[in-house]
Amino acid sequence: MHCVLVGGMPASGKSHLARRLSKSLGLPLFSKDGIKERLFDAVGFRSREEKVALGVGAMEILYYAADQVMAAGSPVILENNFESASFPGLKALLERRRCQPITLLLTGDPAVIYRRFLERDQSPQRHRGHVVNTVYPEPPGRRPLAAPITLEQFVAGFQARGMGDFDPGGPRIMVDVTDFETLDYEGLVEQVRVDEGEGVGFRGLAPAAALLPSQSPAQTFSIGGPTPCPLPPKSKWSWPKRSPGASAAWGPSVTGLGSSPSASPCRRGL
Fold this sequence. Notes:
alpha/beta, two-stranded antiparallel ribbon
């Protein structure tokens, strides 16, 4: 069995991409933030510690729900930031269900994504439980605005929590979301497809449904970025460009969050 994991930086568009994948692939989607928002409304919190505890509970519910669906034989899409603290539970789930993960890790220019992060918290559509840290629901007539974190704090936060290092084994697709206009969603969906009798598959790779994550070859590819990555010799992997000015290609990637810009000629390091 295969499953699709959508992770990456805060405010990088994980939920939007996961919903599009779910609709296009016909797979059930479970989102940690979606679960957290229901817990915020049903239980609430009166301190930062209680809010963090609800986040831990949401993660456990995420894996429990996925486990039940996978036990019935259906692949799933899981959307989460997949920080280091969430990995043991995920690893246990993948091994228990003998699931081959296909990971989409969203990344990009930290300064651009930081601006989206600030705009998101100021949006009236953003659930207030994500924004406030002291009490939710908020007292009537009180909607305090938390002081925004700096770019340096934003970068240090996702690096310290290991979001950019997430690699559960199997194919890993690094998706550069610096410029949404150059991202070919339809082409990305085509790479991760549902084929009845095989489950979710990764085009161009041999089936590996029987392999545990620890047995699967680690393969990382990049999409987007300022410079196309060269394709490996004799490779047939390709990535359709959205427009003549958009550079997007498959290729091995050795970069990740926190790496040096010179670590790869294919894309910017963060």
